[in-house]
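HOLO CASE FILE
Compound: zinc ion
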Amino acid sequence: MRSPTPVSEKSKSSRPEPPLPPALLIQRGGSSIHGSGVYARIAIPAAHVIVEYRGERITKAESKRREDARIARVRRGHDSCTYIFDLNQRHDLDARRGGNISRFINHSCEPNCRSELDRGHIWIIAERDIAPGEEITFDYGFAFRDWADNPCRCGTAGCVGFIVAENQRWRLRRLKRTAP
Ligand SMILES: [Zn+2]
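Model generated. Tokens follow.
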């Protein structure tokens, strides 16, 4: 499940109005990372709100049911993306239904965007200046416990090989060091 960073007071006050989706472009099946990807159509300045991550609001129980089914598909050898975001203690957001372009944004271990949770809404925000044509990415923030089911193909120098939240990757590195 994807997990956003709670909004910081600092970025809340400096946030501009979301001007875009026109800044974004989807390439179906065209990403070098995975399946479809989302690309910058124009230059996007750092700290810019790019798009809201939209989706169907579902209960934690329903979320677990869908995620378990997805993991089962992955273990049978199928390719399966998750579009579920952790929203609060009771609800999650599943972009498989009611989602917008943001659900096609890939994970990267060295992303150019971040996700932020602000009063029940998840925003994708530029972490740095992004050039036209660059693929948009953010850290999916997956829990460490699910690492084996979520290989990463982001291809960055800092890629740890699996989709794991940045603040939990040290566990993966430790695991690799101690592996036979
Ligand atoms: Zn990676």
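CASE NOTES: The first strand starts at residue 5 and ends at 6. The first helix runs from residue 9 to 14.
CLOSED: yes
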